[in-house]
Amino acid sequence: MSEQERGPLGGLRVPGGSGGTDPLGVPFQHDPLGGPAPSARSGRGSEEEVRASAVCAVGICDGSGWVIDDDGEARPCECRKRKIRRARTRGMQSTIPERYRGVSFDRPPISNMAADPGTAAVVREIRDYCENIDAELDEGNGVWLHGSAGTGKTSLAMLISKTALEAGHSVAIYSMPRLLARIRRTYDADSNEEGYLAFFDRLTSVDLLHIDDLGAEKRTDWVLEQLYAIVDRRYEERRSIVVTTNLDTDDLREQIGDRTVSRLLQMCDMEKPVFGDDWRERRGLVIPPAPDARA
Ligand SMILES: [Zn+2]
Prior knowledge:
Radius of gyration: 22 Å
Strand content: 5-15%
Structural class: alpha/beta
Bound molecules: zinc ion
Oligomer: single chain
CATH architecture of the largest domain: 3-Layer(aba) Sandwich
Number of strands: 7
């Protein structure tokens, strides 16, 4: 391969791709929900958009982001929908934190948990969720992971987010203290960051909201109101949430409020009765402490 075929950072250059365009290849800042079909476009703008994304991420369209159906009507391709979903996570924490990037069912701590009779069932449940990630997120199913420090709950939750990201879903990942701090900042009148409403929209529209360490800090009533508003909106719109906490539900109600906890429990099917085989139905998973330390 010649030097000319490589991009500026050594990555492969996509044939026909052009520089100077948005990396997503979608003019989402003007057109967040999909603009007119290519037939309605004209001139250079249309050509540039086609060139900007020469390869369809799901192998369906010709790279334009549009599919022409039997009636000759253009409809958005799945790859375009994915790009728009990704664009929604701009300005949000939507990558796996460094120390959890390598998280996998095949590696410790999760491989150890799978081999441990005390935690094998929890790992099976998470594996099941990950294997059906598209359907689980479509249905708005959530996962609640409760366990004391060092039980591996954060690793399991990160594995869910990693799976969702790899499947092309939009994910926002926040520790509880960071999320509350971020909400507080959007409220500062002199802040240059986007306002609360814009942040609220993004937080409620991502496919998966992941909150780590729920109940980890004391906060004001105002911030708790906002947290409830986010959770409640996601509940109404059937959007999934993954939470980890080391508090039991009574302590959590004390920390973040009764209404928010009740909504979260509903989203994670915690209110189903738990008898025998019904255990498999629920997504509220309690991880028993283990003798060896887990992250
Ligand atoms: Zn496509």
